[in-house]
Amino acid sequence: MPGLLNNQLLEDILTQVRPLIGRGKVADYIPALAEIPGNKLGIAVCTVDGEVFSAGEAAERFSIQSISKVLSLTLAMGRYEEHEIWQRVGKEPSGQPFNSLLQLELEQGKPRNPFINAGALVVCDMLQTRLSAPKQRMLEVVRTMAEQPDLAYDARVAKSEFEHSARNAAIAWLMKSFGNFENDVITVLQNYFHYCALKMSCLELAKTFLFLANEGRALHLDEPIITAQQARQINALMVTSGMYDGAGEFAYRVGMPGKSGVGGGIIAIVPHEMSIAVWCPELDTSGNSLAGTAALEILAQRIGRSIF
Amino acid sequence: MPGLLNNQLLEDILTQVRPLIGRGKVADYIPALAEIPGNKLGIAVCTVDGEVFSAGEAAERFSIQSISKVLSLTLAMGRYEEHEIWQRVGKEPSGQPFNSLLQLELEQGKPRNPFINAGALVVCDMLQTRLSAPKQRMLEVVRTMAEQPDLAYDARVAKSEFEHSARNAAIAWLMKSFGNFENDVITVLQNYFHYCALKMSCLELAKTFLFLANEGRALHLDEPIITAQQARQINALMVTSGMYDGAGEFAYRVGMPGKSGVGGGIIAIVPHEMSIAVWCPELDTSGNSLAGTAALEILAQRIGRSIF
Amino acid sequence: MPGLLNNQLLEDILTQVRPLIGRGKVADYIPALAEIPGNKLGIAVCTVDGEVFSAGEAAERFSIQSISKVLSLTLAMGRYEEHEIWQRVGKEPSGQPFNSLLQLELEQGKPRNPFINAGALVVCDMLQTRLSAPKQRMLEVVRTMAEQPDLAYDARVAKSEFEHSARNAAIAWLMKSFGNFENDVITVLQNYFHYCALKMSCLELAKTFLFLANEGRALHLDEPIITAQQARQINALMVTSGMYDGAGEFAYRVGMPGKSGVGGGIIAIVPHEMSIAVWCPELDTSGNSLAGTAALEILAQRIGRSIF
Amino acid sequence: MPGLLNNQLLEDILTQVRPLIGRGKVADYIPALAEIPGNKLGIAVCTVDGEVFSAGEAAERFSIQSISKVLSLTLAMGRYEEHEIWQRVGKEPSGQPFNSLLQLELEQGKPRNPFINAGALVVCDMLQTRLSAPKQRMLEVVRTMAEQPDLAYDARVAKSEFEHSARNAAIAWLMKSFGNFENDVITVLQNYFHYCALKMSCLELAKTFLFLANEGRALHLDEPIITAQQARQINALMVTSGMYDGAGEFAYRVGMPGKSGVGGGIIAIVPHEMSIAVWCPELDTSGNSLAGTAALEILAQRIGRSIF
Question: Which residues bind substrate (chains A, B, C, D) (predicted)?
């Protein structure tokens, strides 16, 4: 059935969703994101058989933002025992319309899952404890996974985010007050914002995240990134918590594990078959790419793929 | 690979999880549930090829409780347009440790999803509006789906639940105050508690819910129960919201859409392959069958099935 | 200094605040209240020396609404031991912008104080337990205190409130779920709404509430209404919790214990000196009479009275 | 009636409440407070006529902690217009059982009142903006008011508090995220903790706070500290918000404006008559001195003083 999949299909899908541009809103909480044109649109697919398809601005790099939360969790899974991770961060959806301190306070500083800001900050705190150079290490990892030695952080975005980091600082300090934060808050925030400021294209993202569709393995690397079971676990976490407060809607409409970023990118996984990356900067009210979600919904229907 | 599936495998799994009995807690908020022996254990599987496997007390009927929420949603999907349903109830996980009014108040009386009490009450309110005899109609439906004309409500359980219904009454009245409840509160509560008090066995449940694995169709009925897309949608809702505040953990460990009830039953779906029903009355802290979840986790590993 | 107090002063004050009419909003959640003209304005003062002053529509009756919560607490204080009351309702301000279930749920069904709806419902529940005819008994009490045998409930208002009682029903049921509500919900709601629907004039209110300025005694009755200490306690509760979420502002500006109702009435107490009743139907954002509060603020300045 | 007031009365009261020692709990969130013996007990009264009475350890200095919040508000009132203060901090009780971020987030970073941590931090932020040396200035002020040139901060307590300041840092950062915090978080926290670490005795506190009973004036200073109206306003704020989540209970039992600190001190005001300071380190569940509150309750009864 993946025979249906080709560049023309992807082009058709982009044509179909392009009219949605104008109905969403580009993230504007930092200037560096606000100035991205809202009409960027790209998609790329990598299959476990090594095929690559793409359409639109699939080769243009953008700020991956919260998609990086999957990468930091992946790194942590390789450096911590399973129970060490999950005693500090939960596995449940947050059920909150925005990234709130309310729940974090009621639940004694243990974030609900690794894909909300609080949870990703705990994961970054864990990486800071065990890695000698967490920013550099992340770069090496993604350069290897994407086979792109020039992948880099957008220093301007990282700086801009850090300058608007009051809420994330509040989150980190609140977790520290509950004993769930080990390292210097500013250092960890700096790492966190650099990860968010990674610039990657749809093609690079699809290639990087193929391991989640391929039992933990990249096609071009001998060593598995993580185990097959860990890959399934990350996919499970993405289904229940990967799309902010729109995870239920995304599962209902698209039917794939996915993770979005406020830069307008989404990665989605068809287990055992393919990874998909899509990019369109305008966001819906849940903070997920509006046209990007629509493109994934149509793609799922056209190739008859859903985990359900 | 379903060749691996046989009665002996199911027996082995029950043997493996039986030592967990004693670590959970039988629901005791109503006397009729509290008196069920905690060591009941049964499992049944129905495949889309018509095979049936079972082990333990798979033929003994128990109170299906919240598993009925999937049935009432299924009924509503056949009687309402899609948008009519989702304007009154959401599709997102609640992220709440218990069945709370807090979120319902903050979100103006619109329940987060159809599988929390508030959401199921809205669905029952919708059924009351469009069905002439909602209690009788549900009985007819499950008798047909399970091919068991003697399926019935446990009147004693329904009565006992109604007598302890203060919190559900509060939920219904709160929704009424926001204009999201049309019918008489007591009438709808009566329907709701009768649905919860349906008595079914694992074998009957697995057979009844096979339509969710089989694109909306029961094997023995000409008419589809719902469309293939609706079946996928229900599976998606079960993954994100089917296990109370343990949906993330269940997806992480078991990797299947599932719905539990405080009677100790769980149904789980392997799309395109099989439906599974398991029963063990002792619950974990999230309110899901403790040994039942463990049995599903082992089964998933043994037959190599996961949606991720 | 009360020599300053005379009808002309009260007239002057009304003249001064009349321009505020138009800046507030008449309560409109039930039709019977919404139709009251917003430009009604009256004030009355009773001193412990037996003097009575008034201005404006001081003799016109209106719906006293939540002012009745002080009367029901007073009745309960005469029929219950102190500890019996305060184990079921607290003495602390609610700190909530509106009448919320959120706090009631977090605090296990014990309302914060007797002057929020939840607390007044618990008090009415207590009265229902110990009085044979709570509605009739309240009438007798206020008729005696005000020396007005024709005081009555506005049946139309009571009926209209009952028809819009979904939120109060939710509150009562939530308390019942926590074991803090003994009697039939509908019966108690009926009592509660009748108390709210009492019609009294400023003159009648000032006279009725003089006991709070006079160590628990009405001037014309031999028996004290309550003890001097109980009168001080009620005044203390009014200062911290008598003005919905505007108690701090009222203490800051007016400096007297007070209790307001959404009908636009406010009673205020100068301990050892006088009781004051004011009426103007338009409310501020906290639900207190806007011009009424201003009139009390000016009166406090003009006669140099404040408890601070 | 203040003729009743003498040293012997105060001795009697201390004798009466001393048996309560052992029923409360010394604050232990920082080591420097935890090591204070729980059986310290002292009381001092200053009247507007210049009389001074005391008993017990009335001359021993202790950490005034949150009592300093009244001093910082007093300073701010002299350097800001009224509206400038109240647009950044509210006047309403918080209704929270502990010092929570929940409400602060729901109310967009505007603290409920100046006597909770968040509110006091905003006030300190305001002082940092307008004073060149806020720590030094506060010392000068209290030295002048108490006529004690050797009053000083306990550097060890200030340092210890700063080292345990994660929650207060979270609060400050959350307010910064809402634009309600102007200065460097660490600088303001340092000021705040120094104010809390002021060491004063009951005699010094009673003398310092007499201006609140004396229309804004200290007896020994020509210049008023604040206006008579401002003094009334502070008293009003203390009644509704001065005792953490025990303000209602304190008003009900004691009937005076008061402000407590976790060091075990309480100041209370009888307007136009006297200021009272009491000290006993063991706290009740609301964080107020247990025996200290009891002493004030008895004193109020014995001298027949209550604002109600």
Answer: 66, 117, 161, 168, 192, 244, 262
Q: Does B239 have pLDDT greater than 60?
A: yes
Taking CA atoms, what residue in D is nearest to C304? D229
Phi and psi angles of residue D199, each rounded to the nearest 5 degrees, phi first = -105, 125
Q: What is the pLDDT of residues B150-184, one digit of tens each?
A: 999 999 999 999 999 999 999 999 999 999 999 99
pLDDT at D168 over 80: yes
Domain boundaries, chain B: 2-65+198-303, 68-196
**What's the order of all strands across the beta sheet hosting B42-47?**
B52-56, B42-47, B274-279, B265-270, B258-260
Question: What's the pLDDT at D99?
Answer: 64
How far apart are the C-alpha atoms of B102 and A260, rounded to whole Å? 28
Separation of alpha carbons A95 and A81, rounded Å: 27
Q: Which of the following CATH numbers is that of domain C68-194: 3.40.50.2300, 3.40.710.10, 3.40.50.12160, 3.40.50.720?
A: 3.40.710.10
Compare CB distances from C177 to B105, B166, B177 and report the shortest one's residue: B166
> What pLDDT is stored for residue C18 in this prediction?
98
Per-residue pLDDT reduced to its tens digit, D124-154? 999 999 999 999 999 999 999 999 999 999 9
Which chain C residues are Cβ-neighbours of B111 within 8 angstroms? none
B153 has binding-site annotation: no
Pairing relationship of beta strands A42-47 and A52-56 according to DSSP bridges: antiparallel
Check for a shared fold between A2-65+198-302 and A68-196. Answer: yes
Note whether D105 contacts A100, CB cutoff 8 Å: yes
Q: Which residues pair with B278 in a beta bridge?
A: B43, B266
A286, pLDDT greater than 90: yes
pLDDT band at C30 (very low <50, low <70, confident <90, very high): confident
Name every residue whose Cβ is closer than 8 Å to that of residue B100 and which is 6 or more positions away in sequence: B94, C105
Average pLDDT over residues C177-198: 97
Give the closest-approach CA distance of B287 to chain C in angstroms.
Answer: 19
d(CA D308, CA D304): 11
- Rounded to whole angstroms, what are the CA distances from B70 to A304, D58, D233? 24, 69, 58
CB neighbours (10 Å) of residue A307? 25
Using DSSP's 3-state secondary structure scheme, residue D12 falls into helix
Radius of gyration of chain A (CA): 18
Q: Is the pLDDT of residue D2 over 70?
A: no
Does the pLDDT value for residue C281 go beyond 90? yes
Centre a 10 Å sphere on the Cβ of residue D272 and count the other Cβ atoms it contains: 10
pLDDT at D307: 95
Q: Check whether C123 is labelled as a binding-site residue.
A: no
Rounded mean pLDDT, B194-209: 98
Contacts with B30 from chain C: Cβ below 8 Å: none
Tell me which of 1.10.260.40, 3.40.50.150, 3.40.50.10490, 3.40.710.10 is the CATH number of domain A68-196: 3.40.710.10
Question: Rounded to two decimals, what is the model's pTM?
Answer: 0.94
Contacts of D169 in chain A (CB under 8 A): 169, 173, 176-177
B69 in catalytic set: yes
Bridge partners (DSSP) listed for residue A259: A267
Given the residues B26, B45, B63, B66, select the one marked as catalytic. B66
Do the Cβ atoms of A296 and A266 come closer than 8 Å? yes
- Strand ranges (DSSP E) for chain C? 25-26, 42-47, 52-56, 62-63, 152-153, 198-200, 258-260, 265-270, 274-279, 282-283
The one-character DSSP state at A261 is: -
Cβ pair B240:A93 closer than 8 A: yes
Name the residue among D88, D108, D200 with its Cα closest to residue D153.
Answer: D200
DSSP secondary structure of D134-174: HHHHHHHHHHHHHT-TT-EE-HHHHHHHHHT-HHHHHHHHH
